[in-house]
Amino acid sequence: MAEEQLVTFSLGSEEFGVDIMRVQEIIRIPPITRVPKAPEYVEGVINLRGNVIPVISLRTRFGMTRVEETDLSRIIVLQVQTKVFGIRVDAVTEVLRLDTEGIEPPPPIALGMDSQFIRGVGKIGERLLILLELDQIMGGE
Amino acid sequence: MSQDDDKTMGVDLGEFLDFYLLDSQEQIDRLGAGLLQLEKEGENIGLINDLFRSAHSLKGASGTMGFTPIVAMTHAAEDLLDRLRQGKMDVSLEMIDILLAVTDRVKAMLAQVEQRQEISLGSEDLVASMRALLDGEKLIVSEKSQPVQEDKAEVEVEETLVNFIALNFSLTQSENEKINNAHLMGHGIYQVDVKLVPGTLMKAVRAVMVTQRLEGLGTVVKLLPSIEDLEVGNSEEFSLLVLCDEPLEEIRREVLEVSELLDVLIHPYPVGDGLVLETVQGMTIGAEAPVLESETTPKVMAEIVTEEKTPKTFPDQIAQVVPKESGIERIAPATGASSGEGNTQVHTIRVDTVRMDNLINLVGEMVITRTRLVQIGSDLKAQYSMDSMVNNLNEANVYLGRLMNDLQESVMRLRMVAIGTVFGRFPRLVRDLAKKTGKEIELVLKGEDTELDKTVVEVIGDPLMHLIRNSVDHGIESPEERRASGKSDLGTITLDAYHDGNHIAILITDDGGGLDLAKIRKIALSKGLVGEQEELTESEVANLIFLPGFSTADKVTDISGRGVGLDVVKKALNSLGGIVDIATREGKGTTFTIRLPLTLAIIQALLVEVGEEIYAVPLSSVLETLLVNRADIKTVGGLPMVQLRGNTLPLISLLEKFGLPSPETSSNEVFVVVVGFGDKVLGLIVDELRGQQEVVIKSLGDFLNNLPGIAGATILGDGKVTLILDIGSLLQDVLVTRKG
């Protein structure tokens, strides 16, 4: 019985999950410095204890509209291979374990965003979690 | 057998692999450079001896590691070089070519080894060529056969009876049974005693190698002392109990294939019946490079000579090499071991680059923190100007400032590497290219001692190579053409590097035919890179060759002219924050000038406000600042400019360049920050000047580090990230593009 441990968060009404092993930390939103001529979904860079980290707006990346920042907005700092970057999310929900058997492959016509970002859909009771393909988030490098 | 497994009998050859790779790569480079020199100089006994030693130690080390293809080639090369140094053969172009080919092949094999792959490249062709040379030159071996140093410096010795002591191998029950069974079946049971050359390192490895060899012929029942004991102990000999049916000669020969064996005794092991007095004794001179040059003492047959040479194993040799930065951590103070190379010994340490980068980061953070202290100090002074404590604080700050400057400089120096390390591979390149194209070209190197930051040195190699190839292919003419224009047959390409104020200049000059500007213009026209009616200065036409897709070659040659070369060069140089420029004179030659900022991780910066954002401009590139009336800014050919002491200064509006929103109010006057290298200048239009500050350059990470105009980021005292401008790329845009 293989399991995955995920950090789940929400963008609007949809819930997502990322592999907990890739999550370095979760922080409130610090001042973000804009970077000119960067791809649209890159909001800018932040200072993370002396390191400069790019921050991606997942909403923009997935083609959703932007929203106002709230008290619950967070940046989840991820480490994928050697790259460290942050993703802005509306709220972080919880950490949970998901049975790998409960994961289904991404549906071909996915929820209005590029299916390249989805590696699967997990079911927990009534909840549907969209599992992100992290390698693709940062320009697919 | 091409490669032994990494884990054998509990000894991990993997550890030694890194040593081996480092050492071999240096030996091969030395061989390569030496061969080129030999080609130029012809006779040079000292040089030939050096080359012989390099080949010899390479062979020994490779043999220990079990890389047979490399051994085969270096062995033959060693033979060739040996003939050379004994005066029995002359240096010939053919020989140099073959030997250079060998260095290439070995390099390629080493690369495979580094990747932990099996060596798949062949060695037979080169070995055959070398053998042919050797045989063809069966030279003046005079009357009294001067015993030439045999293959493995092995000396045949008459068989002699020696005293044999049967060891107690402390066999277990099952091992005893094995022996007894073998004896019953009539198999041969031998004790193989091996003595190592005194001072041999990696004794355990030798034992493993011998064991492996013997396993190929029979079965090894026991090794005494054990591998573990050999590794930690001082014993320089070991014995094996072996079951084998091969003739003694065969066994001896196999074992002697392992280097650094002083003495091998094989004796039937007494089991039950008495001793059989048949022994074979083999002698091997430790396969090490002879330290002294007077090494021609012939070994006369029938003499038992135990050679005890100073073993120069390759870990020793690592110790005396000048440091190269590598991922390997090894502290090896240079010993005084003379190698006949006549280099002054430099006391050096190899340091892991990761540690160095950590150190530099920490110093960087200290710089930032110190800046904050200064700020706090001056704030306090403003409020409590009479307080003596505040004054003490500020005094201490000043002193701290001086210390920080010194510390910074020293740490920055750590990263500096002489550009000569990059220049090193070019003589070979030019030689090969010249041959290929049938031209005669000489490469002159100057300024090899000029130091650059290591990150720059790593990246600059390829662009330089491209430009040199370009000079060989398009710059220097064929000997016939040169003669026709009254030039000497030999063309010259000169590489020069020097510090020039706030930057480094690297020049690649050729005395060829110069750029054909008319042809360039025509081609650019045909490719739609430039308009028919456009007026271009000579330098602008020349710079067209940097545009992507440009190529003057009628056919794609192997060397260059694929239409990809030069714009890649420009991009690479821009990524280093530098610029490249061309000067050419028809019939006389062309010069490419590369200018690179002295990249340091901590720089002085001028903070400027553009719209609502703040940017940092490296102060070293700032030439002056001006206050300019908007009305004085004119537009020429689409580019804004302003008059500055009689010259036109091209301007860039950072607001526009970065697509920033314009502020609601804008004044009549703007600040212009004049930046540039040498005579290439540019003015940046900004809204406010915010003062000067020391900043630490932080990388923007893999993802964002290619943005035009942005060199990196820094974190100011308030914790916000501020972007640092890339003056080089801004300048390059102005130099080459036509429209703003």
Provide a quick synopsis of the model.
With 141 residues, chain A is mostly beta strands.
Written account of the structure:
The complex is a heterodimer of chains A (141) and B (740). By secondary structure, chain A is mostly beta strands. Chain A has helices at 58-61, 134-137; strands spanning 3-11, 14-19, 23-27, 42-48, 51-57, 74-80, 83-89, 91-99, 103-104, 118-124, 127-132. In chain A, the strands form 2 sheets. In chain A, strands 8-1-2-11-10-9 form a 6-stranded mixed sheet, with no helix packed on it. In chain A, a hairpin with a 2-residue loop joins strand 4 and strand 5. Chain B has 740 residues and is of the alpha+beta class. Chain B contains 22 helices and 26 strands. In chain B, the strands form 6 sheets. Chain B has a 6-stranded antiparallel sheet, sandwiched between helices. In chain B, a hairpin with a 2-residue loop joins strand 16 and strand 17 (613-618). In chain B, helix 3 runs antiparallel to helix 4 and helix 14 (426-437) runs parallel beside helix 15 (454-475). Chain B is flat, with a radius of gyration of 34 Å. Mean pLDDT of chain B is 75; it is low at 1-11, 138-162, 273-344 and 555-563. The interface between A and B is medium-sized, with 25 and 25 residues.
Largest sheet of chain B: 6 strands, antiparallel
* Helix/sheet category of chain B: alpha+beta
Biggest sheet strand order of chain A reads 8-1-2-11-10-9
Radius of gyration of chain A: 15 Å
Instruction: Characterize the overall form of chain A.
Output: globular
Radius of gyration of chain B: 34 Å
Q: Which runs of chain B of at least 5 residues are low in confidence (pLDDT < 50)?
A: 1-11, 138-162, 273-344, 555-563
> Per DSSP, what share of the residues of chain B sits in E-state strands of 2 or more residues?
15-25%
In terms of quaternary structure, the protein is heterodimer
Q: Which strand order do you get reading across the main beta sheet of chain B?
A: 3-8-7-4-6-5
Which geometry of chain B do the CA atoms define?
flat
Largest sheet of chain A: 6 strands, mixed
Distance between the termini of chain B: 64 Å
